[in-house]
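Hey team,

Filing this mostly as a record. A colleague (T.K.) asked me to run one chain through the structure pipeline before their review meeting, and I want the input and output archived in the tracker in case anyone asks later how it was produced. No errors, nothing strange. Just documentation.

Input sequence:
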Amino acid sequence: MRRRIFITLLGAAAARPFAALAQQPALPVIGFMNLSTARPFMEAAFREGLKETGYGESQKVTTEYHWAEGHDDRLSAMAVDLVRRRVSVIAATGTPAALAAKGATATIPIVFETAGDPVKLGLVASLNRPGGNITGVSQLSSELVSKRLGLLHDLIPSASAVGFLVNPVDPRTESQTAEMQEAGRTLGLQLHVLNASTEAEIDTAVASLSELRLGALVVGTGDLFSRQSERLAASIARQGVPAIYQYREYAAAGGLVSYGASLTDSYRQVGVYTGRILKGEKPADLPVMRPTRFELVINLKTAKTLGLTIPPGILAIADEVIE
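Output structure:
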């Protein structure tokens, strides 16, 4: 009788760890989505932000990375699938992904990253009190296009005709173009708007730079341009046209100069907000984060290739000089 009781108790003790294991909650799942092709530096920056909030170890959270490979039509399906699977948070990076995620759910928390004004884009009600299930990070890069034109004018004051390369289907293009035209009039510059919504159209637009006799070029914001920064910077430089871009990555790839918020830091901040939401904070209570500083990066090697001398005053205020 005693032996039978001992075996029963031993069986119950042995089963207890397995029962406890079965009752452990599942790991939270983050759905990370972006229009571009896979970019390791973005993933690394996002993970760094998560780590700052205590989610750096793989056993605490699962992150699934979804890249649309430049196909806009895939984003809506991605967002709907993440909602169907009830992920804990959607990290929707880039304006197209942010808009797709917002259109797919009003309940699952969303943390976005955008270069545009999230209020004008319809993502949030206000920057300080986003409302609803969405908040994120705005680089306000779209609002800096006139500043970039001014910097380019300081670099190359002899350039009277300047190009502005934009993607006409990007939701920020209309406001950016209006701002650039006003800035061009103020500086006494002739502005040529070059439209490109595909890679082939980018090649055509870049090839037309010499025919238009443009003295300089401002490259607009948008994933279409940023996901091929190396190719775009190289092809513009081959045309012998000085250009200014929004991100450091362009200057590092051979572009003349860039001015804007740090893209790497923006993705880190998305990771921070995602971690804070996983810990219980509400998106509606988290104000949209904005950059506190902007980077001016100058590629001196490209300047020499173009036969340009960068004014000492501009070199003095540059955050980074690539030689």
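Quick notes for T.K.: The first strand starts at residue 29 and ends at 34. The chain has a mean pLDDT of 88.
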